[in-house]
Fold these 3 entries.
Entry 1:
Amino acid sequence: MIGHEHEVALLSFESLYTDNTLHAWANWFKKVWPAYRAWYLREGVLARPTYFQCREALRLHMPEILPLWERLLTAVGGGDLEARFLSLYNPPGYQFSCSQAVWRGASPMLVRNYDYDAKLIDAVVVNSEWNMQQVIGSSDCLIGLVDGMNQHGLCLSLTFGGKSTVGDGFAMPMILRYVLQTCSNTAEAIAALSRIPSHMAYNITVLDGSGHVATVHVAPDKKALVTSSPVATNHQPDEMVGASRWRTATVERERFLLQRLSTEQETASQFVAHFLQPPLYSFAFSQGRGTLYTAVYQPDEQKLTYYWPKHSWSIFLGEKHSKRVTMTFPE
């Protein structure tokens, strides 16, 4: 879709409301499943865990979500490969560059840039009411979320942690789905994020309805590190920053955000505006690292707003009617 800097890509973002009937979600799954199937099998079918390994991992680490996984699988007609994929246990590895921070004003909000390949993003905002829990967020791999919020005002967002090491564990979008389905505050989220194995390194920033903030740094080869930092980019505090530092400016982005948060006079709108320009906003679309959206989660209003340099789009938790917006990258 994007081959050179001067070429543009059209990307349609849409909202999807899905209740316990799962009809809308199942129709979407069937539409995009061939592409996800090809991605899941890109290293060969034997590289992926078996159905029994996936089910046992869910039972062991996320037992509360196991019935939902089974109902989602039934909604799409069952199937061994579909079941393994929807567990997101030991999937292929993948990387992206993102920035995220919590603005601690009168009405705290979680703000994040999602920098990724325009050809690979779901570009779907899922408003789900599954198992009597309302969740809204940016979809990844159909069941997972790269950022989201639930009815309790708990907000989470992930960034890649900077190391390419892949181990046994779940894709972080699946873990975020689990946390938003089962937790109501930052303390509960920290406990879940610290115990569930992640297959790659991630930084997860958490904000709850009471304003409690934390960032949890996880990786498959070490114990989770919990900090009170309101900022995360693409490195972890206890790791050496490698070559990706220069490619993604991860340290520079982190310092910039910390400086902005220390400015007492900065308003919420001013803080969000920084995400729409360098050094936070990335124009690296030809390298698959351009900023595809800025998401702002406002737990007080139960609202998610997407921002682009020339457009914005707001969606409320539980909103049932569909929306669509088509963006051009670079804008």
Entry 2:
Amino acid sequence: MPNINNRKTGSGQEITFDNTDNLAKELSDRIAKKLSTAIESKGKASLLVSGGSTPALLFEKLCQQDIDWKNVWISLVDERWVIACHEASNERLVRSHLLQSKAAAANFIPMVNHAYTAEAGAKVCSEMLSQIPEPFDMVLLGMGNDGHTASLFPCSEELGLGLDLNSELRCLAVNPKTAPHARMSYTLPALLNSQQIILMLTGKAKWQVYQEAGSDDSKEAEKQMPIRAFLNQSNTKLDVYWAS
């Protein structure tokens, strides 16, 4: 059974597990229930996910769920500006682990287009993403050891615009100085336009980073660890799922 505690900042809970398999199973069931409820009430559902290695097991369990997948829209919270077959592509991960089995019928909207640079492709990307039903029913975030989430990096010159709650941008090009590849990322206000945000973490190192992020709720501190902008807000419920 998971251990559940209220979070110290913002709104939501901390839900912790003894192992990643239990976390993936529990979260898969929760996402499936959320999407199915949305389809029952409005005929469609939307899910934004993160890339990286952390959610792979979750994706493998989620794609087996009995959901009316043809009425589910899926996209990413961020993407490296590489072709879909590139080993660094988040789309490649989603297609190989999530858009399989029953979930193969889902509607997937990629972030990368034919533009040579992320800056040149930002407008088309935003137009493509506008197909996804909003507000999003579920957003799945991850977090780096530097406190970045999506591709909102503390080292990037674009961070201020990405965290601007008054911005009307859905997505923006990001060029991190401490990570490879140019990126496309959803902005903070666009991601907060959701019914539920899940921050999924595994390992003790990530838990320590999360604890550090939760220790300062000042606006200035958000520039040092952008995940704080999500943890400190109370407009959209954010639950943390962690396994050691």
Entry 3:
Amino acid sequence: MKDRVTILTGGVGGAKLALGLCHAIPAAQVSAIVNTGDDFVHLGLAISPDLDTLLYSLSGQAHPVQGWGRSFETWHFLEAARSLGAEDWFALGDADLALHVLRTQQLRAGLPLSQITAGFARHWQIAARILPMSDDPVATHVLTTDAELDFQQYFVKQRCAPPVVAIRFQGSAAARPAPGVLAALHEERLRAILIAPSNPYLSIDPILAVPAIRQALLQRTVPVVAVSPLVGGAAVKGPTAKIMRELGLTVSSATIARHYGDLIDALVVDARDPPEPLEVAHTRTDTLMKTLQDRTRVAHAALELADRTAIRVRR
């Protein structure tokens, strides 16, 4: 029986669809391959923003408005650190510190990130499999008109303001998929592979930059369906549209489809997007995900499109 689904995800938009997917089908049938190109060390702590966002989302602890961080957070640590002259541009909440401190402790003890993440998910009774894309370090670097910046320096400290010239994924060429990742892309019971409406250039491309993951997608035996991150021809939040313009690209779902190229078989497009020709199978629906019902509906739309889509490329 083809009942399992794997989703490539990063950021808040990706976590929203992953949560919807876990309500569209049983969560135990979902595997999420998560971007770790955003990972960095801050105040001596190992931070994995996209993994944490997904952990909070699937355990019901995510902040209901901002999407990242924990609900009912307090900030006493950050205030105390600020009073001692610490950098405070990256917000570390008091409850949020638990993941960072324990992750740092376990990494120093020699445990791989994938094992640590699985332990967190188990303690919070998350049925879906949460898989870091790699246990090897991969760092997203943003080349701007002024300097080459670490991802968090660009995204958080400078609020995506500098114009982007190029994006690089340091360490990706040598990175290996984390345990479970290739199995999640090849297993016999796999129904479909989804690519979340995450920023393609900052959240999905780091995953695709791991050579064995990209090759596994090219050798897929089930349809790959991407959900466009554009709503009404623009980005809901974040720098997706800004980066596209700075890279000289047209802000459109057709551009998103061309960006993924042979790696996808179909695309879910927002119903408000301007009409345009697309070179892949597609469906139009309301892709704005404000509520759990919205997220589940978009997940169903992606799965239904996958079920009626033929595989585009076999290599």
